[in-house]
Amino acid sequence: MKGKKTMSGLLAISLLAAIPSVPALAGPVKWTNVNAYEEQNESPFNKENYDFVKFSQVYKKLESINKQSNRMKIEVKGTSANGNPLYVVTIADPASHGKFGKIQALRKQMFKNPQKAQDWIAQNPDFKVPVMINGSIHGTEFVGTDAVLQLIERFATKSDSTTKKILANNILIFNVVQNPDGRIGAYRFNGEGIDLNRDFITQSQPETKETVALIKEWNPMVFLDTHGYVSNYAPNKQGLIEPCTPPHNPNYEYDLFEKWSMSGAEAMEKEIMADKANYSGSLYRDKMDGVYIPQRDDSAGWDDYPPIFTPMYALYHGAYGHTLEAPTNDLDGVRWMYNSVMGALKHATENKQAMITDQIEIFKRGINFDHPFHREGHFPKAYILPVDEKDPTVTRKAVSHLLNNDIDVVQAAKAFTAGGKTYAKGTYIVKMDQAKAGLANTMLWDGEDISDDTPVMYDISAWSLPELWGFTADAVHESVNVTAAKVNNLTGQGTLSGKGPFLIPNSSVKAVSLVNTLLKQGTAVKRDSKGNFYALAQANQVSEAVKKSGLQIKTAAVPADAAPLKSLKVAILKDQGIWKTQSHAGTKLSLKRLGFDVAEVTAMDVAAKGLAGYDVFVYSGTEEIIALAEDMYGPNKQFGFKNAGQLQDFKANLGAFLDKGGKYVAVGAGASIATASLGLTDDTVITADPNSNGIVNVDYDGDTVTAGYGKNDLGFVFQPVWYTNTENDKVEATFSTKPDFFVAGHWNDLYSENTRDSARGKAVIVKEKDKNVTMIGIEAGFRDHTDYLFRLMSNAIFEK
Ligand SMILES: [Zn+2]
C-alpha cells in the first residue's frame, strides 16, 4: 500500500517536469579477466593485512547475491583508466524498481520548483531518498568495498525489521569499487597514477567522471565515502567520521549541512559503540571510547575546504557528505565501516523528511538568489565568459565542464553590455540564480587568501578554473539583460582559411597538441621567437587535424626568425608510489594532453639503460625518486636505489644524455631539489613550508621558455620553491615584487624560516646558460589541472 501511494504522488509531481528516461545501461555486465599475477594480496603501506575480497571475485559475489534477491540491479557504468569495469549496485524494495526514472524526476523537480518539491514531501511521507555509498576510492583501503559487499548482501536478502524499515525509506546506490586499478595493484591511485579523491574539481579521470554522473543522476541525500586508516588520532578514539574542522568553503550553504552532519556522525559512532563486544582486536575492545569526529574533537587540521574530495564535491549537489576512515585494515575495520554506514542509514531514515527539506532549501536559495548566511555580494549575479575567436577551445572546455556538473549556461543571442563592458554575440553567461549556484561559484571564483584563518590545511586551498585553466570569467554584480539560449551541448570544429602557411598561435593546450599532431604526421612546422607556430603545408594536409583541434587557423607569413621543429620523444621520471602517491602523474598527463609522446622511465631504467632514443627528460615530483633505499621510510624502500652504484650510474647516464644534446626540464619543488643534488645547477634552491600552496602573481619575461606569458601574470605553487645565486642562469620568471603577490590559497610561515615575504621578486623559472637545463618552480602540470601553465613546459621542451 505504501508503495502505491508513493507511486501516485510521484506521478503527480512528475507531470510538472519532463520525465527523463532511465539512463541507458553501459552494456551488459561482463566478466573480466584480471591477471592473477597482477592482483596483489597486500600493500606494504598498510600496518595490517587480511584476506580481502579481490577485484576478480567482486562480480561473482554480486551475481551470487543477485540470484537470491529481487531488490537489486547491477550495472557497469564505464571503465577505469586501465579498463576495469565500474560496478554500480542499486538496491530498493521491489515495488520501487522500474520507477527509478520517476524518482529521479522528483529529484530534478527540486531544481525547478523547490517549494513544490518541499510541499509534496510534507504531504507524502512515503517517499524514498537516495543514499550513495562509495567503495574504496583508494586502492589500499580495502575494507570499504568489503563492507559495501556485506551491506549489499544484507539489503538484498534479509528481511529483519531494520532492513525493511531502511528499504521502506531509502534507495541505496553502491559504487562498489571506485578504484578497481588500485585494488588490483594494491596502490592508492588509479592506473594513471592519479589520486581520485583529489580529482573532483578537475575530473580528469574516467572513474571520477563516472561518480560525478552518478551523483547527478540521483542527487543523493547522503553520500558516504569509505576510507582508512585512522586510529588513535585522539586518545581512545578509533576511526574518523566527518564533519570537519574549519575553514569551511564559503560557497557551501554550510548552516544547512551543519544541522544534520554532526547528528549523523554521532549516529554512526553510536552504532559502532553498540557493537563493541563483537570486535575482536584489543584496539577496539580495550581502547575505543568513541570515534574521532574532527568538528567535535578538534579546532583545525581536517578541513572540508576544497571541492577536490568526493564527499565535499557531493555537498555542492546538496548531499550530506561524510568521509569515513576505518581504524584498521582487517575484519574489525570492515565491521567498523559496516556499522558506520548502518548508523548513517538509520539516521537518514529517522530524519529524512527534515533532512531532505533542508537539502531542497539549498537549491531554493540558489534559484532565489537568497543566501541568508553569506555577506552581500559574495555571489555575483552572473559570470560572463567571452569567447576568444581564434582559440575558443579553453572557454569551450570550461562550458562543457560546467554543463557536466549540472550548472546551467546560456549563450547571448546578440551583443550586450554588462559591468561596463561590451560582449559579443555568442558570449556564454552563467547566471547565478540557479539551483547549484554554490558549485558554479566554487568553480568560477578567484578564491581567497586563507593563510591567517588556520595554521594548516589538509590539501590545496585554491583551484580557480578561470585562473588555472586560462579563460575569462567576469563576475558582474548587476543583472544581465540579453536574449540568451540555454546551452545543451557544445559543438565546434576548427576551421582553416587561406592557402598556407598557417599560423597556429601559442594560445592553449589544444593549440600545442595540434602542433604535435602535425609534427607526428610529418608536416613541417616552425616556431618563432614569440613561441607561435607555422605549419608549412597545403590546406588539405592539415585540415583534418585543425577540424579536430577546434581552433580557427589562418594563413600568415612566416617570420625570418622562425626555426624548424621536430617531433620530440619525452621521457618522464616515474614515481612508482613513494608515500603512496605518484608525484609525477599530473605532469605526465599534462604532457600527453600537449600531444607529446611521453614514456615513463623509472630511476632504475635510467641507471641501467640510459636515455638513448629520447630528446627530453622531465623530472617532476618528489626528490626521493632518486634516493637510496637505505635512506627511505620503510614502505618507500622498494622504490629506491639498492646501492650507491646505481645512483652513480643514473647520474652518469643523465650526464651522457645532456652531453649528446638531450634536454633536461625540472618542474616543481622536489625536482628542483633533485636537480641541485644531481649537480645540474649551481643555484641555491629554497623551499617554503611543504603544506603551502596556491595561486601567485608571477612576472614572466615573455620570451623563450615563458613565451605567451607576461608581467603580473599567474602561476601555481605547491610547496613554494625559488632560486638564488642565479648568476649562471637566464632568469625567465620571478615571483612578483608586490606585497600581495600571493593571490589565493594557504601559505603561512609558521613552520618554515623561508618566508612568503622573502620570496617576493625571487627567480622562479631559470635556464642554465652553459647547460641544457631548465628549472620551472611553478607547478606547471599540477594534477592535470593547471592547463593555463602547461605551455611553460611545451615552451621549455621546444626551445632550442
Ligand atoms: Zn583514503
From TrEMBL:
User: Which Gene Ontology biological process is one annotated for this entry?
Assistant: proteolysis
> InterPro entries per the record?
Peptidase_M14
Q: Which GO terms describe its molecular function?
A: metallocarboxypeptidase activity; zinc ion binding
Does Signal show up as a keyword for this record? yes
Q: Which cofactor does it need?
A: Zn(2+)
Query: Which positions are catalytic residues?
Result: E325 (proton donor/acceptor)
User: How is this protein annotated for GO cellular component?
Assistant: extracellular space
Q: From which source organism is this entry? A: Mesobacillus zeae
Q: What is this protein called?
A: Peptidase M14 domain-containing protein
Source taxonomy lineage?
Bacteria, Bacillati, Bacillota, Bacilli, Bacillales
Could you name the domain of life of the organism this protein comes from? Bacteria
